[in-house]
Design brief:
single chain, 214 residues, two-stranded antiparallel ribbon, 8 helices, 12 strands, 37% helix, 22% strand, DUF6563
Length: 214
């Protein structure tokens, strides 16, 4: 009987690391080394299009439920989070691209080696202007004029965060083809899509992540 209890206890202890957890990373180093803190509650909320247009910022609002202290940490001091499903989100609050801010909240991200790839829209970015379509919804009046002047549009593109330098660069077609060079089928499909919008590029980043896990 005692041997059976001891065996069950050992199995439960060994199984603990395999249990999916919500993980919080305070900085880039913690993320790259996969050394973060766990939290019991992590709520990931997709922000509406109107919220993003009116207040700017990234696509996801992440909180810790009723834990106000943890919510403040997530909003202002946390670098990235990984939910229990394994999805990675990057806090855009302190990220910059050519001195342009991405605003608050979180962007979906993928880690490939030592680099992090995410999709977002810098406030005032000229890149986003290249993806504006005629039927995109725009606000009128002074607010609408200000948003149009700053190119705060609905399109998203992908960026590369260099894990060694911390520098953020636009993930263009040439760089994406470098990432896909060892996967000819994915490379061919990417060229066929012929789009640098995040909804296309991020799909291939996820495919690369899945292939590298195998």
């Amino acid at each position: 009987m005692k041997k059976g209890c001891i065996l069950c206890l050992l199995i439960s202890v060994i199984s603990l690391p395999l249990i999916a957890q919500n993980i919080i990373y305070s900085n880039l180093k913690e993320l790259l080394t996969q050394h973060g803190d766990t939290t019991a509650v992590l709520r990931v909320e997709k922000r509406s299009r109107n919220q993003i247009v009116l207040t700017g910022g990234a696509d996801y609002r992440i909180t810790a439920g009723d834990d106000e202290s943890m919510c403040r940490r997530l909003k202002k001091r946390c670098f990235a989070v990984r939910d229990e499903k394994g999805n990675l989100y990057l806090n855009c609050r302190k990220l910059r691209y050519k001195k342009l801010r991405f605003g608050a909240w979180y962007a979906p991200a993928v880690q490939l080696g030592k680099n992090i790839y995410f999709c977002a829209m810098p406030l005032g970015s000229v890149i986003g202007g290249n993806f504006v379509e005629e039927d995109d919804v725009k606000l009128g009046g002074n607010i609408g004029d200000a948003l149009a002047a700053s190119s705060l549009v609905t399109k998203r593109v992908c960026y590369e965060l260099n894990g060694e330098t911390g520098k953020v660069d636009f993930l263009g077609k040439d760089r994406m083809l470098q990432l896909l060079k060892n996967y000819p089928e994915l490379k061919q499909a990417y060229l066929k899509d012929d789009s640098q919008e995040a909804k296309h590029t991020f799909k291939y980043l996820l495919e690369l992540q899945n292939k590298q896990k195998k």
